[in-house]
Design goal:
The complex is a heterotetramer, with two copies of chain A and two copies of chain B. Chain A is α/β, with parallel strands linked by helices. Chain A is 19% helix and 26% strand. In chain A, helix 1 packs across helix 2 and helix 3 runs parallel beside helix 4. By secondary structure, chain B is an alpha/beta fold. The radius of gyration of chain B is 18 Å and the shape is globular. Chains in contact: A-B, A-D, B-C, B-D, C-D.
């Protein structure tokens, strides 16, 4: 399995029947495709849709039906469309059960940075800042280290924040961490990785919560 | 109460240099493409634009950028546009990045007579810098201001001559909010229908928020990311 | 003509084609019935409707279609229904061209009191406080004096206010007044009343703007 | 995702004494009549109710009043109810009068994660007493707080099993806002339809705001003021 597969397969387990879920752009979108058939959830898109279905059959794409990643999608039976203010009423008001987002850096305090690299072109935060403060449960999925082998799981984020103390759970290709009152807690090792391995690749201080 | 006019060229003549315009759409979906083209043709300068995105290099608000008609852009995401990047790096355009939910709420608030509201979005981030942060019930919130624009450009699916609008699918997005935020709201639609053809329970934007209605012809409705699955297969 | 007729007939002249109008409960509602046929306006009801039509034909009353006075009504072609927050977005956001409300007291500063009499049962202000601050033009219609012959047009309101400095025009059974930067201005005498008559029955100080 | 249950008696068992409930309706139009009746039957006490009105003496929220189940009422107009008057004069009930637009906005704000907002409504009146008043662009505004209720009772016309709701005509009123403001929103409707029967563009309250759906039988839908014109005649 690739690192991406490890992360996505683990993230899928976070999904429970009955949830209203927002999946971020990029790797989180892959979670939708990996959901087991028959799982009973509604996927929300922050541009203004609840009940995203699969991509359209070729030839049926509709410019008036896209997700937050601007991809053409379809709607499930029982879907609804609404304006973007109502969409963020759902998000900011705590009506979305789960948001899964990508990350550039995560701190041991549950801070997330995923929208801006100083010196590079600013693209904008889109709906990420609203999602991290609003969703009932925020899960970040990302590679544990960057392409230079440096830990993306930090004592403190070096990049500008998307949200402060907002993450409930972090899933990387190496491990799963929870953010608690006591601090950041390692709760699971993934894909055969060892505690030593994870410790070596993690700048953040964490509590070993493995049983 | 007949708000229907015919000419896009004529209707944008009321928009002076330096005007602020709230523009509907998300990405290239549900954008008022004809009104933007008319404003490009008119060459109106020094615009302040409130819109979630800024189009792409050769379509939507990107066309106004290319002609250097935009002075200030208030948006949540401008990452699809190289012209924007260039002008930003050259200091030719002023940009105010606003989280998407905050932008949506600011437009609705301005259109609703609410001058300011508190939101949890952006606390502890660069977005909160220079803004009032205040506690309610032990949590911190940022004060954000409502937006009232001189004009709004919106794109609907159908309208009647009073200016009642229905949108189609996710092309709704920011359009109803821009309609509220504009002092003068101009709506372009794909079809103008008889009064009474829109059921009162289905109207998305009531007529009171709309001052002018125009029907556009041959909508291009570009797709930014065409994602499909093969027939009968998975994505 | 009764005092009520004088007021309503005069109020009707304030209505112009193309206006979106909110009429308060009571006497203002009578303005709707007195509108000339074919006048091209939309009447808004703050519970959530734009485009009120006439009362329903007997036997067609619908419990799901009422105005802000809780009366059964009909809808015109081109009407719309919406939630009460959107309704007050219209009102507070300055999208309603004209509001005509009743009054208990009006001050020379354009203050309105029309919702509460201390010592009597509090009924509530309903949407009146929103209407007076939000509508582009606020016209109050009321009897000039109360049943004891005392002026309801005061130097200062004695009753709790609905809004401070919010009235554009006052129409009574005696006269019409505008509220300007210079003060309260008499602009019209009604129903054969004289300046002396109006002056005698008005506690407020006003400028004579008659030409 | 099937939120449909059958028993009004069962569904209100989760509501404890002292709970706060946002209740939809305007006057007697669009009120959740079956849920109110079930709560009367259950005898739940010390309720805080957020609702525009308080019913009449023998219907709607008036029934809860009569049984002295309401401790505090937040409303904009309570003038149709003699029981209310009596309890208020006796100091048996606490009342917080809120302008109608402010109440609507407070419910929407609470449901939208907005803890507070500024409004021009009530400046210089008793409503502003004890509240922060602040200037924006030279005008004064009052700070008002969002409302989040433990529960919401709403009345829709049709629903599907996900909890998508459509309302009928002006029976919509405060219902969508209460749905947003409730931590647990219970919707009663006249008809439950198949998934897909409600067009996504026509849904008024999306499923995410609703936790339970029940179909009521034989709706009474009382009319408070029956105003009619004779056939062919004027009002």
């Amino acid at each position: 399995m690739t690192a991406r597969d490890v992360i996505v397969q683990r993230a899928v387990k976070e999904v429970q029947d009955g949830m209203n879920i927002n999946l971020g752009i990029g790797m989180p979108t892959l979670v939708a495709d990996a959901l087991p058939a028959g799982v009973d959830v509604l996927l929300q898109s922050e541009n203004g849709m609840l009940g995203i279905g699969p991509y359209p059959v070729e030839g049926t794409e509709d410019a008036d039906l896209i997700n937050a990643g601007k991809e053409t999608v379809t709607a499930v039976n029982g879907a609804s469309y609404f304006d973007s203010a109502t969409s963020f009423s759902m998000i900011r008001g705590g009506h979305i059960d789960l948001a899964i987002l990508g990350g550039m850096e995560v701190s041991q305090h549950g801070d997330l940075a995923n929208w801006m690299i100083p010196g590079k072109m600013v693209k904008g935060m889109g709906g990420a800042m609203d999602l991290v403060v609003g969703a009932k449960r925020v899960i970040v999925i990302m590679d544990h280290v960057n392409k230079h082998g440096e830990s993306k799981v930090k004592k403190a984020c070096t990049l500008p924040l998307t949200g402060r103390g907002v993450i409930n759970r972090l899933i990387t290709d190496l491990a799963v961490f929870d953010f608690t009152e006591q601090g950041m807690v390692l709760v699971e090792l993934l894909d055969g990785h060892t505690l030593e391995d994870v410790t070596a690749k993690t700048e953040a201080e964490f509590i070993n919560g493995l049983t | 109460m007949d708000k229907v006019t015919q000419s896009f060229e004529e209707i944008v003549k009321q928009i002076p240099d330096g005007a602020s315009i709230a523009v509907g759409g998300f990405g290239l979906s549900g954008i008022p493409e004809k009104l933007i083209l008319a404003l490009v043709a008119q060459g109106t300068k020094d615009l302040t634009i409130y819109s979630n995105n800024c189009g792409v290099d050769d379509w939507g608000l990107g066309l106004l950028l290319k002609e250097r008609q935009i002075k200030k852009m208030v948006a949540s995401y401008v990452g699809e546009n190289k012209t924007f990047e260039q002008q930003f790096l050259n200091g030719e355009i002023d940009v105010e990045l606003t989280p998407q939910g905050t932008l949506a709420e600011r437009l609705r608030a301005g259109g609703s007579g609410i001058p300011a509201f508190y939101t949890p979005t952006g606390v502890g981030t660069p977005i909160a810098e220079g803004k009032e942060v205040r506690q309610f019930d032990g949590e911190e919130y940022v004060l954000e201001r409502g937006i009232v624009a001189d004009f709004a450009f919106i794109k609907g699916w159908k309208a009647d001559r009073y200016g009642n609008i229905v949108y189609r699918h996710t092309a709704q997005n920011f359009n109803p909010l821009c309609a509220m935020a504009g002092k003068v709201t101009i709506a372009e639609v794909e079809e103008i229908v008889e009064l009474g053809a829109l059921l009162p329970d289905e109207v998305h934007t009531p007529a009171v928020f709309v001052q002018h209605v125009l029907a556009g012809q041959q909508y291009e409705k570009r797709i930014e990311k065409r994602t499909v699955r093969s027939k009968g297969g998975e994505a």
